[in-house]
Amino acid sequence: MFNFKDLKDIHLEITNRCQASCPMCSRNIHGGLENPLIKNNDWTINDFKHILPSKVLRQITGFYFCGNFGDPIINNDLIEMCQYSTDTNPDLYIRIHTNGGARNKQWWKDLAKALPPSHNVIFAIDGLADTHSLYRVGTDFNKVLENAKAFISAGGIAEWAFIKFKHNEHQLIACEALAKEHGFARFTYKDSARFVATEQFPVYDSVGKTTRYLEPPTGSNISLITQDVIDNYKDIVDASEIDCYVKQTKEIYIDAYKKIMPCCFLASIPYNYAATNDTTKSIRLEIEQQYVNLINDLGNTNALENSIQDVLDSPAWQSVWKKYWSTEKLITCARTCGVNKLSKPKDQFIEKVNL
């Protein structure tokens, strides 16, 4: 793995709270029930300054606010974090991934003014008024669009990110046109990679009752995780040659609990809830044990107790990956960065369109 002096990018989860209940998000169980493994936590501006002092901000090319479970705009100190970062290094490239459904228009204008010239706020908008909330449960299309327009009007650079499903694929062209009309700099779309063993994903209500199903779009380019893959995962992992993506990009991930990890995929493991009838539960249990072994080898990676430099330059961080990418291959690494993948990375876009 690379040393601190080579660090270029950081993925930050400054909160694991979110006002939405997207059915395929691990923050909840099929949209209707809360994930009991997740305890809400937020960074403060003091946490941010401690973890990302001027030495770090002046070295890296940029960072992005996203995470596995939360929406960064829910953190009350986000604008202050952006302003501090911009003041420290105005050449940073800051990206923010959000559903855009919270805050008011003035807040979004203030955010635009706090960001450096190089920035991008990615709004997750999955359809028009009649379809958007079928996946982005708990958000309102019109409010999201108004927030985005306020951000753009104040000089903000915005991207419209669209996840295709069967229920919204017919609106793709209309959404792209609307994005251009309202000043989005970019329109992107992708298919969901979260269908496992079936093309019907049940959506639950607050008591766990199935209310409807999500289905992939027609002719999806994403390879579903089939039952055959599940049954033969050991052979697939053994045959995988792991080429770590963040090793190439010189990136790290820091979660809502301030734990430093290489990527969001490994960091999410202890919080991914598996129901008793989950067909992948035995695999998940093995993944969890691999995570425990990895953490025992790495030691304390809490960014409030150990600096990023201390963690990245530690003998443990520098040495353990050879084992976990070769003789004791991590299933998660084989899935996301292996030549033979169980599925494609969740953030891999099928198309990108500059407007």
Please explain how this structure is put together.
The protein is built from 15 helices and 13 strands. It is of the alpha/beta class. The chain has one domain: TIM Barrel (Alpha-Beta Barrel), CATH 3.20.20.70. Strands 12-11-1-4-5-6-7-8-13 form a nine-stranded mixed β-sheet. It has a two-stranded antiparallel ribbon with strand order 2-3. A two-stranded antiparallel ribbon has the order 9-10. It is globular, with a radius of gyration of 20 Å.
Task: Chart the SSEs and their pairings.
Elements: E1 9-12, E2 28-29, E3 33-34, H1 45-51, H2 54-59, E4 62-65, H3 78-88, E5 93-98, H4 105-114, E6 118-124, H5 132-135, H6 141-153, E7 158-164, H7 172-181, E8 186-191, E9 201-204, E10 210-214, H8 227-231, H9 233-239, H10 245-249, E11 251-254, E12 260-261, H11 264-267, H12 281-298, H13 308-312, H14 315-324, H15 331-337, E13 351-354
Parallel strand pairs: 1-4, 1-11, 4-5, 5-6, 6-7, 7-8
Antiparallel strand pairs: 2-3, 8-13, 9-10, 11-12
